[in-house]
Design a protein that fits this description.
With 433 residues, the chain is α+β, with helices and mostly antiparallel strands. 35% of the residues lie in helices and 27% in strands. It folds into 2 domains: 163 residues, Chloramphenicol acetyltransferase-like domain (Chloramphenicol Acetyltransferase, 2-Layer Sandwich); 196 residues, 2-Layer Sandwich (Chloramphenicol Acetyltransferase), CATH 3.30.559. Helix 7 crosses helix 11.
Length: 433
């Protein structure tokens, strides 16, 4: 094994269990790998940086966690006392990430990019079962603390960092109790009767997805100019909404026009970190909440935005309801051609890049991936950037042509722009090819 001493077994959270089951059906899939790059200024001593990585791994269970089965045949997590963290060094980008064996810790890999014996960047690849986007900020902060302490000849105090096992136990107890059951039933009630499939026109017939529900995907990136992005942000502020709400209003209007239905279900990602302890834990908390939206494409955009705002706020109340538990409660017909409940998703990435500003300066950002496996038919993420508003589309290549997604992006931005400039008008009509 890669380490010594094992703690456990401990139960899995619902999110971890879903990823574990997915891996059993499709071992070695890259659908749930997270890639990130940490930029280092003005540069780091490679040996001190590697020692600091060891300190962070010792503090956070996620870097020492592996998965297997307990004595009752249930999936479980085990935390090693310590693990080896080999950190190869190179002068340029590394090779494509290899899959992980979830039964062997660590489920995180690093690679240093060095120039003239100085580390200028750290590449990270992690399996989603132990890491999410929020975790990157925690990692960057603690790595900076550990490095500065090492550079000063000491060791940082990183004790007391929480692990996932405790959250799994608390989640199971909550779901088994009256509050958890009521929350699951309430969200299921909001979705009962919704269309099983958002039947948008596709360029090719639907084929069966992979065993994990994934399919070969592609990505497209577009940027709305800074001035227009500022107008949209100001519009959201004046309407006491958020960019997420305004963007979702435009996106759902496009979907309604495109599909010809006024009953739209869009997946919305929530951080799922509803306690201070969760905010300090490296792990997988993110959860998708299906938002059911009634879209009247003949009504004014601002009226539609008001309805979307209410749904988003209500959806936040259910971010503790695991998606899989919701699927169990609704028990929709299963199909190999699409995911249950949610086939499209939308979100906004408006947090600052993960940063640490001390004796050393670190900036961590997700690495771009234009050929990732598509977990859904179509996803749209907006990112607030200094140069403007960036739209990141991911789509199933077996369903859609690149030109189709490009037209959707044009339509989306036109709907967004028109909705902000003239909110009393209905959402924009389709863009014709």
């Amino acid at each position: 094994m890669n380490g010594t001493g094992v703690g456990g077994p401990a139960a899995l959270t619902a999110a971890q269990r879903r990823l574990w089951v997915t891996e059993q059906f499709n071992p070695g899939s890259d659908a749930y790998l997270i890639d990130a790059v940490v930029r280092i200024e003005p540069g780091a001593d490679p040996d001190l940086l590697q020692a600091a990585l060891g300190d962070v791994a010792a503090a956070h269970d996620a870097f020492r966690t592996e998965f297997g089965w307990d004595d009752d045949g249930e999936p479980a997590q085990f935390v090693r006392d310590r693990v080896e963290l080999p950190v190869p060094r190179g002068t340029g980008p590394g090779a494509p990430a290899e899959p992980f064996d979830l039964e062997r810790a660590p489920l995180v890999r690093f690679r240093m990019v060095c120039r003239d014996d100085t580390a200028t960047a750290l590449e990270l690849t992690a399996h989603h079962i132990v890491f999410d986007g929020w975790s990157l900020g925690i990692f960057v902060r603690d790595l900076g603390l550990a490095y500065d302490a090492r550079a000063a000849g000491g060791r940082a105090d990183l004790s007391g960092r929480p692990g996932m096992a405790g959250f799994a136990e608390a989640e199971a107890a909550w779901l088994a109790g009256p509050e958890g059951k009521e929350r699951v039933d309430a969200l299921a009630g909001l979705l009962r009767g919704a269309p099983e499939l958002l039947a948008v026109p596709t360029d090719r017939p639907r084929a069966a997805t992979g065993p994990d529900g994934g399919h070969a995907g592609a990505g497209l990136h577009f940027t709305l100019p800074w001035e227009l992005a500022q107008d949209i942000t100001e519009f959201a502020r004046e309407r006491r909404t958020t960019l997420n709400m305004v963007g979702l209003a435009a996106f759902s209007a496009v979907l309604a026009h495109w599909s010809g239905t006024d009953d739209i279900v869009v997946g919305s990602a929530f951080a799922g970190r509803t306690s201070l302890a969760a905010e300090a834990c490296v792990g997988c908390f993110i959860n998708v909440v299906p938002l059911r939206l009634a879209v009247d494409t003949a009504a004014p955009f601002d009226a539609h935005l008001d309805r979307v705002r209410e749904r988003v706020l209500r959806g936040a109340e259910y971010q503790d309801v695991p998606f899989d538990r919701l699927v169990e409660a609704l028990n929709p017909p299963r199909s190999l051609t699409h995911n249950p409940l949610v086939q499209v998703a939308f979100g906004v990435q408006n947090t600052e890049p993960a940063r640490y500003d001390g004796g050393i300066r670190l900036t961590g950002e997700p690495a771009p991936d234009d050929d990732a496996e598509a977990r859904l038919d179509l996803t749209l993420w907006l990112e607030e950037r200094p140069e403007g508003l960036k739209a990141v589309w991911t789509y199933r290549k077996d369903l859609f042509e690149r030109t189709t997604v490009a037209r959707l992006n044009q339509w989306f931005f036109r709907t967004l722009r028109q909705g902000c400039l003239d909110p009393s008008a209905p959402p924009a009509a389709p863009v014709r090819s």
